[in-house]
Amino acid sequence: MSELASQFKSDFLREFAARGCLYDCTDPEALDALFAKERVTAYIGFDCTAASLHVGSLVQLMTLRRLQQAGHRPILLMGGGTTKIGDPSGKDESRLLLSAEQIEANKQSILKGVQHLLRFGDGASDAIMTDNAEWLDRLDYVPFLRDIGRHFSVNRMLTMDSVKLRLDRDQPMSFLGFNYMIMQAYDFVELYRRYGCRLQSAGSDQWGNIVSGIDLGRRVENVQLFGLTTPLITTASGAKMGKTAAGAVWLNADQRSPYEYWQFWRNTEDRDVGRFLRLFTDLPLDEISRLEALQGAELNQAKIVLATEATSILHGRAAAADAAETARRTFEEGGAAAGLPTFTLKLPDGILNLAVATGLVSSNSEARKLIANNGLRLNDAIVSDPRLQVDQGALTADGVLKLSSGKKKHVLVKPA
RNA sequence: GGGGGAGUGUCCCGAGUGGCAAAGGGGGCGGACUGUAAAUCCGCUGCGUUACGCUUCGUUGGUUCGAGUCCAACCUCCCCCA
Question: Mean pLDDT throughout A380-389?
Fold first, then answer.
């Protein structure tokens, strides 16, 4: 699709495609014309299954951001209702159902985490946040079946990937999960009714659900709706974006600090730098071309730009600058920079307990193994004795301890 | 309802049919080499006060000096027949 970039007339689609964000869309010509003609209202839905979104959702969030930057109106749809059902796509097992309270708490937390990405308000292109629980929770079963259910062919639903793949692998699927796509299709129509929303965007795996919504819109509202999908982002090595050893790369600062988030991007593989700059920053394309052309160690400069820009979008310019400075002091000067993750606690007995207390390792055994592999450092000196006692005398001039696992993970400990 | 099969180290896959803390792989972590990259090589990958002890193979009982392995019941899933 990116080769079509130059053929689009609308600013939004041209830029979107040129950045490698476009995977597929329905009726490209009509959608392009719509974007060129008027302010478009578009939505993306997010599940409330966790207290924070992670990097895997970032492409979607960036899509909303770009829509807004191009003067259109993004809707952030929180799946407070659909989360009660659970998306069957891709999962091998039905997930445990979350309680309504848990879903609501997750929703609030997610919203807090994405504040910097979009401008909310009452202006013409200000972002709107809504929750599909507002309409899904109130549905009356029989009227819903008569008005909406009649438009869905079970035969067709069975052929959709989210269902088919599951059945093909002999994995169970309850009637509950089977309804997810109907709810998502209905969301689209409801958002059209409420906000004149004409476009739904999502990852490419949601194509089937999007098309269902478009079909439903034509049948019940006689309107042409559009769908737009983004590619599934993997690293050049084939790993899914945002999954690291420590778990998902969460967007909320209380789960992954701006410094750690900055580090995540700083450690991007060489081959991904240009692509990620296009996808995850607002930098102009010619600037990105210049950065990705850097060779060898020079490319580290591009990674620093990537990290700072990406962090800035999520946490703000100041937090990004702080993170960059903390990283510079830590990695280039080898110091105990104040911006590192810091734990204030009473110094425990022995180095093992200290390492566990900071979360650098999860058990004493793991700490011992790390020490045996020369992986644990206290104030940059390799710890070789697992029985090492840590007391006030070990504090640096700043009155802290710097504890490191390997060369990249550093934390500070302040005696309480 | 009848017949057959499966559930293994709480990341995943997967060997194992009486001596097992349990093969192998992926993933992950650490080390070497580098550029906070990739590739490659090496080590580690249940917990603990670590030449020892404790907990682990769907659940609960049983046989045995000893059970992931044998027996019984139960739970969950899959396949075939009805």
Answer: 91
